[in-house]
Amino acid sequence: MANAVFSPRDPASPLSISPHETAMLLMDYQNMVLARIGDAVATSVVSIASQMRDWALDKGMTVFHCLIDASPSAKPPPHSRTAAKWKLYEAKFVEMPWLGHESEKLAVRKHLSPELTVLRTPGSISALESHGLSGMLKEKGIKSLIIGGISTSGCVLSTARAATDRGYIVTVMEDACFDPVSGLHGMLVSHVLGTSAHVATSREIQDAWKIL
Question: Where do the Isochorismatase-like domain residues begin and end (predicted)?
Answer without folding.
Answer: 22-191
